[in-house]
Amino acid sequence: MNAFLRQQFTLLVATAILLAIFGTFVPNFTSTSNLLDLAQQIGVNSILAFGMTLVILIGGIDLSVGALVALVGTVTTYCMVNTTAPDGSAIGLGWNVFPAMLAGLAVASLFGLFHGVAVSRTQMPAFIVTLGTMLVARGLALRFNEGRPLSLPGSQETFLFIGNGRLFDTIPMPVLILLSVYLLTAAMLHFTVFGRHLYAIGDNRLAALYSGIPVSRCEITVYILAALLTATAGMIHASQLYGAEPASGQGFELNAIAAAVVGGASLKGGRGTMTGTLLGAIIIGILDKGLNQAGVHFSLQYMIKGGVILAAVWWDARRRR
């Protein structure tokens, strides 16, 4: 069995063990309705984790995704809402759903472009660049409506269907979007020249540069793609909240990093798969939902998740040695 299959098999076994444990001690945890709810909940984190995996593959990191989720959700909602404040001033632009979604994607693309240019052209550390833009994005989100939530009107059925609808009254829409994004990103990563370039850059950036790979262009593209995936997750999240919460998304970047790392992505770059990341997101989702339904105190939940991440990083370091 090669390394890839062995890794995926290990993740599948871990997923099965967690389901067995929570299925034994948490009533109705493995029921169809509960598992569908679980699948719907992991949609946002999985899509964020796919973008994070692309960034981690080239040896980077993106700490701004949680704040960008809030900003994209707020911008998109603000464009669709059309209400009047108590002082008579207008709140929102009252746009149709598709122009509003394009506005959210455009905002995310600008952040992704800045990340890519700053990291690739100026050699600034990705950690510092995205830490700064995390604060900028959070501040911009809080500027809308003075930091107060924005509620979507019921007439925005198309947008609300993205996060809450179910195909044939069974399959949650976030799951369908998640699967589509997984197939597209996995195909791009594993069956295109661009994907091979990302592995080469993460493995040895200087060697990739000397071999003729357009390193800067690839890095900029990766950060833009990651931002667009973040925007997609932000719209799903806003739809699930029936509006925008400027303070939402806190800690989302940590869950995305955790899913990628648990799924086998190396923080040193050059190693990771979308299948592993998806399984990692499922494992994190099972832990979150299972511990919540089991009534475990939130402080202990943090400790358990931290232990899982440390174990994954230790295993990656051991495998590299």
UniProtKB/TrEMBL annotation:
Pfam families: BPD_transp_2 (PF02653). GO terms for cellular component: plasma membrane. InterPro entries: ABC_transp_permease (IPR001851). The keyword Transmembrane applies. One of its GO terms (molecular function) is transmembrane transporter activity. It is a multi-pass membrane protein. It comes from the Bacteria. It is found in: Cell membrane. The chain crosses the membrane at residues 9-26, 38-58, 65-85, 97-119, 126-144, 175-199, 220-238, 296-315. Keywords: Cell membrane, Membrane, Transmembrane, Transmembrane helix. CDD domains: TM_PBP1_transp_AraH_like (cd06579). This is Ribose transport system permease protein. It comes from Roseimicrobium gellanilyticum.
